[in-house]
Design goal:
- The chain has 412 residues and is α/β, with parallel strands linked by helices.
- The protein has two domains: 5-254, Rossmann fold (3-Layer(aba) Sandwich), CATH 3.40.50; 284-410, Rossmann fold (3-Layer(aba) Sandwich), CATH 3.40.50.
- The chain is 34% helix and 20% strand.
- It has 15 helices and 19 strands.
- The strands form five sheets. It has a seven-stranded mixed β-sheet with strand order 8-7-9-10-12-11-17, sandwiched between helices. A five-stranded mixed β-sheet has the order 14-16-15-18-19, with helices on both faces.
- Helix 1 (39-53) packs across helix 8 and helix 11 crosses helix 15.
Length: 412
């Protein structure tokens, strides 16, 4: 992967982590400021900020240590934080999730990597019958803050089981957050918010966008913000006073970014409460427009923005809404947009049959019936197994397929 381009506004601040022997060891400096990063490096930076900000955060997955993962998303993290916090696991997805649930119940915040989307199904039982239900089963006394990172989607020319879009299977399971960032900035911020959340989070990463770059404010997110504040306290010499260091080491200060007290018994929390996190709970208007609302998430956000740009050259103003979260679903932002534009097209890589687009279409039709000037249209994968690499671009929602749906909507 190409190296990130660093802007002149970048600076660093050091953090402390637990060494394998249990002693405190100085980690590499945590960057702050604004950098231009590829999508994958933005996630890496978010994981680094979380590891540096909370010694209860640990990563687990296949080949995530010295190799840095298949897509190098965890590159360099084991060298910085040690093998006890960035753990190479056996090839056993069910075991990874089962272990993570136990760790979460003991006060840790495990972040599990599923190497490819199609490999998540051996862990489906642990995720849907244990992880999703533990909070409800205990009547709110237990929380399991586990993050499951899933590289998903197509467009990379991979073989079978490596280009799936299974997000709706988990969105249909109550008790799970299901999110997917559409930009490097959201990837950086949302992975931190997912880790700090008391809820289990399925974090779907659009692997076809891993190499696309964007500006990332490294002071964003709960852990990035804490690192930036520490940099401000440290001053120009990078050294804080003894009193400031002592205050920063107080448990209340160190744990202030978490939503609920760590431990086995906690206050009841609901899955859909805001938790003070903006990107993890709300959709965002990625591009304003007036003639049609184009709803997307994850890998199709970039496609939607290209569609809007192409349509603008022909005099059509398209508003692009990036969902960011699939469950819970921020329908209010979508509805507000459709009431303004009177038309709606939803695009995602997963099959349209019983997909996220179907839920959005039903909700928009119910809430915007008298505002709509055309039926809600959907563009997505077909109801077939994911095809071989040679023809995958016929399956994925392309610029032309989405533009065709836009034209059909405007023709009503």
């Amino acid at each position: 992967m190409s190296a990130p381009t660093t802007s002149s506004t970048s600076s660093t601040t050091s953090s402390s982590v637990s060494s394998p022997a249990g002693r405190t060891a100085a980690a590499e400096p945590v960057p702050t400021g604004v950098q231009t990063l590829p999508f994958a490096k933005a996630i890496n930076a978010g994981l680094r900020a979380a590891l540096g900000g909370d010694d209860k955060v640990l990563l687990m997955g296949e080949d995530i240590g010295p190799l840095g993962g298949v897509f190098r998303v965890t590159d360099g993290l084991q060298a910085s934080f040690g093998a006890d916090r960035v753990v190479d696991t056996p090839l056993a997805e069910s075991g990874i999730l089962g272990t993570a649930i136990g760790l979460a119940l003991r006060g840790y915040r495990p972040v599990c990597e599923i190497q490819f989307d199609g490999f998540i199904f051996p862990a489906f039982d642990q995720i849907t019958t244990q992880l999703a239900k533990m909070h409800y089963r205990s009547r709110g006394r237990l929380t399991v803050p586990v993050v499951v990172r899933v590289p998903y989607g197509g467009g990379i020319g991979a073989v079978e089981h490596h280009s799936e879009s299974p997000e709706v299977l988990f969105a249909h399971t109550p008790g799970l957050r299901v999110v997917s960032p559409g930009s490097p900035q959201d990837a950086y911020t949302m992975i931190q918010e997912a880790i700090a959340s008391p809820d289990p989070v399925l974090f779907f990463e659009p692997k076809g966008r891993y190499w696309e770059k964007g500006a990332v404010d490294l002071s964003a997110g709960p852990y990035g913000r804490r690192a930036a504040e520490a940099q401000d306290v440290a001053g120009p010499e990078g050294q804080s006073s003894a009193a400031e260091s002592s205050a920063a080491d107080e448990p209340g200060e160190r744990e202030s970014i978490t939503v609920r007290e760590r431990g086995t018994l906690r206050e009841p929390v609901t899955l859909h409460e805001a938790n003070g996190f903006s990107t993890l709970n709300t959709a965002v208007v990625a591009r304003p427009g007036t003639d049609l609302t184009l709803v997307a998430y994850g890998p199709t956000v970039a496609t939607a923005l290209k569609v809007a740009e192409a349509a603008a050259s022909e005099g059509t103003s398209i508003e692009v809404v990036d969902l960011r979260s699939i469950s819970p679903l921020d329908t209010d932002t979508v509805v507000e947009s459709v009431r303004k534009t009177h038309r709606c097209v939803v695009v995602h890589e997963a099959p349209t049959f019983l997909g996220t687009g179907a839920e959005i279409a039903a909700t928009v039709t119910e809430r915007c019936f008298y505002d709509l000037e055309a039926p809600v249209l959907r563009v997505g994968g077909f109801h077939t197994p994911y095809p071989v690499a040679k023809i995958e671009h016929e399956y994925l929602p392309s610029l032309d397929r989405v533009l065709d749906a836009v034209d059909r909507s405007l023709a009503f």
